[in-house]
Write a structure and sequence with these properties.
The structure is a single chain. With 464 residues, the protein is α/β, with parallel strands linked by helices. Helices cover 43% and strands 20% of the residues. It has 16 helices and 13 strands. The strands form two sheets. It has an eight-stranded mixed sheet with strand order 6-7-9-8-10-11-12-13, sandwiched between helices. A five-stranded antiparallel sheet has the order 1-2-3-4-5. α10 links the parallel β10 and β11. The N terminus is likely disordered.
């Protein structure tokens, strides 16, 4: 009741402040509309004058020529660089012409420094010397048809932007409504998204200037097999299977927005494969699995399907290792199959979904680890479903889990605060342990910051 009262009071204060502000600004808005109208008239006069000039016609001809050059894959090289309060970054675009009926587009990012303010606020320990070696490369190899789709999308976007400008010039009072309106993708842009998400034209390659501190997970070779399974509700689940003929297998369950092919999980799989066979999975709505992600409402079926596959391989022990919402899922499914699971490790698991602090998109949640997890191809594979479907709560079932469970958290986790993990640990009745890693953040970030200690902790728990 107290929370509801506080919420009502907060809303009342906000509405009062807003009404007061609106009353004060009424005259200012009217004056601003006059200014907008005058500016629009002047802009329209200038636009009309330019439209009738030979310069404008030549500029249009030049623009059409550039667009045609994109269609025909004429070689082009563009460099851009910014320096904002010490944050120094830029990019280079290289169009290298046709090669084996494919037009090659290379996008290279460049970071030189973060700046003192960003470093202080987000407590980023990586030096500028290391950051300067971070040069992510996105490479696109387009067929002629795909290149036409790309150019059509660019033209459609430019046309929509020009239409908005024309509307503002025609009616300056529409400025604010146009700015706030959420525009849908054009059909041309939707086609381009399908091409990119298809994964055949766009892929990410590591930096040409790798550094051990950042790309420590690039330098390894994994012998693994990709397999596709089907859930009871006919969802395709993709797994990476490392079979070294060990007696035990570890099923690794990434969280929201991470996949089996994410670099941290590839490296982690490789590290753990020295001790166990490994199955790393894509939940629905991620990577190469089908369907849409429901934030733990239906993903228990995905994990059950993978557990059943592991059982069919006659392992003496099956262990679960889950991260974030994947950590919640190993608890939820582990409770149902405690007699089939030997041990569980849950990392940064929420006690219940609706109590997550919702800081997944906070800069503090992603800036410190951006250089470790820059994978735009992975981002394009994520397909979110309905987040409001009914979900079971780990905190409600934790006491039913019988197999030994290790609870791991990061001291500075901004996404799922450590109290979630501690609460789950305290309420569990099985053999259990709790480990808080200092000065680190969320889920797989713990592994990235403490790779040797994290692997040692997991191996010791599973082999004990």
């Amino acid at each position: 009741m107290k929370k509801i009262t506080n919420l009502i009071l907060a809303i009342a204060v906000i509405m009062t402040l807003q009404n007061t502000t609106n009353a004060i600004q009424t005259k200012a808005v009217a004056e601003q509309n006059k200014i907008n109208q005058n500016t629009a008239k002047q802009a329209k006069i200038m636009t009309d004058e330019v439209a009738n000039s030979s310069f404008d016609k030549k500029f249009e001809t030049l623009s059409e020529k550039y667009i045609n050059n994109f269609r025909t894959c004429e070689p082009l090289h563009i460099n851009q660089y910014w320096d904002v309060f010490g944050l120094k970054f830029g990019f280079k675009l290289d169009i290298n012409g046709w090669n084996a009926d494919k037009c090659s587009y290379n996008f290279t990012g460049k970071f030189d420094s973060l700046g003192k303010d960003i470093r202080d606020v987000f407590e980023i320990p990586i030096s500028d010397e290391v950051i300067s070696k971070f040069e992510p490369i996105i490479k696109c190899d387009f067929t002629k048809e795909e290149l036409n789709i790309l150019v059509d999308a660019i033209i459609a976007r430019n046309k929509r932007n020009q239409d908005q400008i024309n509307r503002i010039l025609k009616n300056p009072d529409d400025l604010y409504s146009i700015a706030m309106k959420k525009e849908k993708l054009t059909p041309e842009e939707e086609k381009l998204i399908k091409v990119l998400v298809g994964g055949k034209s766009l892929y990410y390659t590591k930096s040409t200037r790798t550094d051990e501190n950042i790309y420590r997970y690039d330098k390894f070779t994994i012998k693994m097999k990709e397999i596709f399974l089907k859930t009871e509700d006919n969802i395709k689940i993709a797994i990476n299977y490392i079979n070294n003929e060990k007696e035990s297998v570890v099923i690794i369950c990434p969280g929201w927005f991470m996949t089996k092919d994410s670099k941290p999980f590839l490296k982690m799989s490789n590290d753990l494969s020295k001790y166990f066979d490994i199955i790393t999975m894509d939940f629905r709505g991620h990577g190469k699995s089908s369907g849409f992600y429901t934030f733990s409402a239906r993903e228990e079926s995905d994990l059950k399907t993978v557990i059943d596959y592991a059982k069919s391989n006659n392992y003496e022990q099956i262990h679960l290792l889950g991260f974030s919402l994947g950590g919640a899922l190993v608890l939820l499914q582990g409770e149902k199959t405690s007699n089939e699971i030997s041990k569980i490790i849950t990392v940064s698991a929420p006690s219940e979904f609706y109590k997550i602090e919702n800081r997944m998109y906070s800069p503090d949640a992603w800036i410190p680890t951006l250089f470790h997890k820059f994978e735009p191809c992975r981002w394009l594979t994520i397909r979110a479903g309905n987040p409001f479907l009914k979900k079971r709560k780990p905190v409600d079932i934790i006491q039913n889990i019988k197999c030994p469970t290790l609870f791991i958290a990061g001291e500075k986790d901004p996404t799922v605060l450590p109290w979630h993990t501690k609460k789950l640990h305290d309420k569990a009745t099985c053999r259990k342990a709790y480990k808080l890693f200092p000065k680190t953040r969320h889920a797989e970030d713990i592994y990235l910051d403490y790779p040797e200690e994290f692997i040692k902790t997991c191996v010791n728990w599973l082999k004990d």
